[in-house]
Structure formats: structure tokens, C-alpha cells
Design a protein that fits this description.
The protein is mainly alpha-helical and about 300 residues long. The chain is about 80% helix and about 0% strand. The chain contains 13 helices and no strands. Helix 2 crosses helix 6, helix 4 runs antiparallel to helix 6 and helix 6 runs antiparallel to helix 7. The model has no long low-confidence stretch (mean pLDDT about 85).
Length: about 300
């Protein structure tokens, strides 16, 4: 019970950021499109660059993001295939995007630090950067295909700087390049903006909704994928690894479990806004999943991670 209550109090400040985002959009008329572009094209690439550049790269560590990436792609593609039987518009595209993604950054990183301590930050980011890669490869492509041709989708994909930030950081890391203390101070500014703007974006998305008819099928499908199927997949992998392979450590098991239960990615709103793929549905589903996670994550943590 102590773990449950501690995590709830650690998570609650993130919800105040959502409220601030809603107020900013509703009364200060802050544009969610502008914030979305800042996150996609500047802040997230900077965070990914710093994470890859400063984290020691080993084969064992790289296996985890590779695993997450393939799981994300699997969830995205199978959801896209099945959702064609229920939706004929771009709803199926944004649903497929959400099924493969998770809020491991804006929401998951603070929770991981609260649960495992600040020392987990580097391993967490290198383990979960695959979700950003997924967002900017298959996830972006599938979402863009709701309104764009395959050629247009590929062109837009090549304009996303996250991939280039990752490659450059990896090269600099492996070649042993070091930056001075001024670099660390500079990147600290991006880390603060990362969580604040990411969580506020959920509120900004909600503030832009003037009229919305609750799509029960859409919300149910997102919850089924995120809070049921993802944990089943992760617990299956952990069970098999413990029984036959023994490749992952207990620390990695804990990261995998937490990743499987974080809410829908706030970047869903950013990409849905950027690509005009039902941002109102995305905003509402992300909000509900984030509210649900307030109790779901502490419950899972109390049972499996305490």
C-alpha cells in the first residue's frame, strides 16, 4: 500500500500540467499546433540525441529497444488490419498508431525515477527510445497514410529530425567524442521542457475540442491494446526468458513491466494534429488513459514491482 500511495502522489503533479495546458489553450489561446511542432522537430530530437550520446552503448542494452520496436510495429500493423472492419476513415490509422506507442517519456520517465530512483534514467531512456523511433518511422507513416499517398508519407517522414539526431549521437558516442560542461547545462533546459510541454499538450488538445461525440469503440480499442494486450505480451516474454534464456536482468524486467502499463503516448496528439488525423479523438483517448493510469500503474507496481 505504501508503494501505491507514494506513486499516486508522485504522479499527481503531471495531471496539473494537463490542467495548465487546458487553461493555456482555452483562455490564453495557445496553439497546440505550435507546441506539437516544437516537440516533434526540436525538443524530442534534442532529448534523443542527449540520451544516445551520454548512455554507454552495449549489445545487451540495445536488445531491449529493438524488442520494443518490433512489438510496437507488430501492435500497429495488426491493429491497422483488424480496425479496417470497424472504420473506413483515418480513425483506423490513428488507432494503429496508438496501439504501438506508449507515453514512456513525458509520463513514464518521471514515474520510473519515482519508482526505481534517479539512477534508472539513462537505462530507461536508452531502453525506450525505440518508441520515438517507432513514432517517426512506421507510426508516422501509417498515420500519414490516412490523408497522404505513400510517396507523400515517405517525404514527410524524411523531414523528421529525430532519426538524424539518433544516428549522429550514436556515431559520436561510439567514436568517443566528449563535450564540455556547458553542453550538460544546455541539455538540462530541454529536459525540463520535455515533460512540461509534453503533458500540457494533452490539455491543449482537449481545449481545442468544441464538439465531440464519444467514440466508445475507439476508446475501448485503445484501452484493450494498451492495458491488456501489451502487458500480456510483456509478461509472456518475461516468463519465457526466465524459463529458458535468462538474457535479461531483473532491472530490465521491471522496466519492461512499467513500459507495458504506461498510458497512451501524448505524442499521439502531436502527430494527429500535425497530420490532421482526428486529433480530438486522440486527445480524449490519451486523457482517459492517463487518468486510468493514475491508479493502474500504482496497482501493478504494488503487485509486481514492490
Amino acid at each position: 500500500m505504501t508503494v501505491f500511495l507514494t506513486l499516486i502522489f508522485k504522479i499527481i503533479p503531471l495531471y496539473f500540467l494537463i490542467i495548465l495546458g487546458f487553461i493555456s489553450g482555452k483562455y490564453l489561446k495557445i496553439s497546440k499546433e505550435t507546441v506539437a511542432k516544437l516537440l516533434i522537430y526540436i525538443i524530442v530530437p534534442a532529448i534523443i540525441f542527449n540520451s544516445v550520446f551520454t548512455t554507454p552503448i552495449t549489445v545487451n542494452i540495445l536488445v531491449v529497444p529493438v524488442l520494443f520496436y518490433f512489438l510496437s510495429c507488430f501492435m500497429c500493423l495488426i491493429t491497422l488490419k483488424l480496425s479496417k472492419y470497424f472504420w473506413s476513415d483515418s480513425t483506423k490509422n490513428i488507432l494503429a498508431f496508438t496501439a504501438g506507442d506508449a507515453n514512456t517519456g513525458y509520463f513514464g520517465l518521471p514515474v520510473a525515477i519515482a519508482l526505481f530512483g534517479p539512477g534508472i534514467a539513462g537505462v530507461w531512456m536508452i531502453s525506450t527510445f525505440s518508441f520515438v523511433i517507432y513514432e517517426n518511422t512506421l507510426g508516422f507513416f501509417v498515420t500519414a497514410r490516412g490523408h497522404h499517398t505513400a510517396k507523400e508519407s515517405i517525404i514527410r517522414l524524411l523531414k523528421i529530425p529525430t532519426i538524424y539526431a539518433f544516428v549522429i549521437a550514436l556515431i559520436l558516442n561510439l567514436t568517443g567524442v566528449k563535450f564540455g560542461p556547458g553542453y550538460t547545462d544546455f541539455m538540462t533546459l530541454f529536459r525540463g521542457a520535455f515533460t512540461i510541454l509534453g503533458m500540457m499538450l494533452i490539455g491543449l488538445g482537449l481545449a481545442g475540442i468544441n464538439s465531440y461525440k464519444f467514440d466508445f469503440k475507439f476508446v475501448t480499442a485503445t484501452f484493450l491494446a494498451k492495458f491488456i494486450i501489451w502487458p500480456i505480451l510483456i509478461f509472456t516474454i518475461i516468463t519465457l526468458d526466465k524459463a529458458f534464456f535468462g538474457f535479461f536482468t531483473e532491472q530490465i524486467y521491471r522496466i519492461m513491466i512499467l513500459v507495458s502499463v504506461v498510458p497512451l503516448a501524448a505524442n499521439t496528439v502531436a502527430f494527429a494534429t500535425e497530420l490532421n488525423a482526428h486529433p480530438e479523438k486522440a486527445s480524449f483517448a490519451v486523457l482517459l488513459s492517463t487518468l486510468f493510469a493514475l491508479f493502474y500503474i500504482p496497482l501493478v507496481s504494488m503487485i509486481f514491482l514492490s
